[in-house]
Amino acid sequence: MPTPHTRHWHRSSVFGPGPRRPLDREQRARFRYLLTAHRRARRISPLTEIVGNALVRRLGVTGQCDPAHDTIAADAGCCARTVRRALTALKALGLVVWQCRLVRTGWRVAQTSNSYVLAIGATPPSITPNRPFPTAGQSGRETLQSVFKPMPPASATEIAAAQSALADRRRAIEARLGK
Fold first, then answer.
1. pLDDT of 30-70, one tens digit each?
2. Which of 28, 78, 134, 153 is the most exposed place for a label (fewest CB within 10 A)?
């Protein structure tokens, strides 16, 4: 019976350069837009958005993106532990996927870095309305619980009241401008 390996990072690791996915200018802009949209929806923190943008800046023309956590931390102006938490949050949203890169030195194997792939797909189905969004908490404790609650549809009287308020506001602005 095989025993579990003591070094868990060997399971999904790869020797060599790792996966590559080049992104053109529009795809990079879409990734940055998704980061901003998730931050505005309070699914990620502003610092997580900065870490995501640092990954975009480190992405090469060939799709190579394998900076160390310390390098990303220096780019984002935070510590390496914050980078790990931010990457976990981005992975939970389906924006970043990574694979450990290994190198063999004699009879030993050591991890060199991670190879990151920036995904610009849609939001994964694990994030549904009325459920808390995944956050990067410390020691398994959640630090921010943000819940998306859809608004009920407006009634006809509410719509009419809003339209009359807008018309009043328009008349007030036109009177101030002298039209």
1. 889 999 999 999 999 999 999 999 999 988 888 888 888 89
2. 153
CA–CA separation, 127 vs 100, rounded Å? 26
d(CA 60, CA 42): 29
Name the fold adopted by 8-118: Arc Repressor Mutant, subunit A (1.10.10)
Question: Which of 25-34, 40-49, 130-139 is most confident?
Answer: 40-49
Domain range list for the chain: 8-118
For 4, counting Cβ atoms within 10 Å of its Cβ (0-12 exposed, 13-18 middle, 19+ buried), the class is exposed
Burial grade of 137 (CB within 10 A; 0-12, 13-18, 19 or more): middle
Question: E strands along the chain, which residues?
Answer: 14-15, 96-105, 108-118
